[in-house]
Amino acid sequence: MKRFVLPLILVLFVFGVYDRTFADKGRQYYEQAGQIIWEINTEEKVIALTFDDGPHRKYTTEILDLLKKHDAKATFFIVGANAEKNPEVVLRMYEEGHELANHTYSHKSRMSVPRLIQELKKTDETIYAITGYSSTLFRPVEGVYNDEIVEAVSKEGYQLVMWSWHLDTLDWKNPGVNKIVKFVLDGAKEGNVVLFHDGGGNRRQTVAALEKILPELKREGYTFITISDMMRMKEKNQNQDNQDKQIELPK
Ligand SMILES: [Zn+2]
Prior knowledge:
By secondary structure, the protein is of the alpha/beta class. The chain has one domain (35-226): Glycoside hydrolase/deacetylase (TIM Barrel, Alpha-Beta Barrel), CATH 3.20.20. It has helices spanning 2-22, 27-33, 59-69, 80-85, 87-95, 113-131, 147-155, 177-187, 204-219, 227-248, and strands spanning 36-37, 46-52, 74-78, 99-102, 137-138, 159-161, 192-197, 223-224. Strands 2, 3, 4, 7 and 8 form a five-stranded parallel sheet that branches. The protein has a three-stranded parallel sheet with strand order 1-6-5, sandwiched between helices.
């Protein structure tokens, strides 16, 4: 009998933790509550390019050069520890009109909620010390979130940002430049959010892919905007929808 007790406790523990860790109200709820953004519905030809895990001295600098060349704005989800190592890259991002956002300090996965909040604040302080700018956008490590995280970060004034599910380039796996290019060009639509990585490893393929993606999407008529620009656009569209609805009301 005794030998069943430990497995039973383990099973109960695992399910208890599972339940607590993965409770998730679902995309529709979070989207309507404005707590998480994946992408927006719009007919305007806009795209948000996002970069995680940097800044990296070499790759982020090369990406900034390309963005400048093509008059594109992007959003960088910065790892605080990397920002400390490369303050001049962070300052350049800011000065060139890109959006600075938070991707924790250590980039450790599955940290406790109090630790997460502490790391977000530490990264914010680092970014603020370099630029004088306070960021409010947060992307969780590996995109992992649950109710507890969403509630806690919302309470601290952060907006959680994901990406368009069909535009996770998986560039960190180094799938080949042409594959990344084709993937983005085939998938990109109005209001989408693309996920790239500028740090955390060798990002030569990301840089080379961007060299082809940027001019091509530009040729197709797209403008590259930041996540905050996109959120403002979403708000404007919603207000417009509400106005239209009011006009349509029967008398
Ligand atoms: Zn990351």
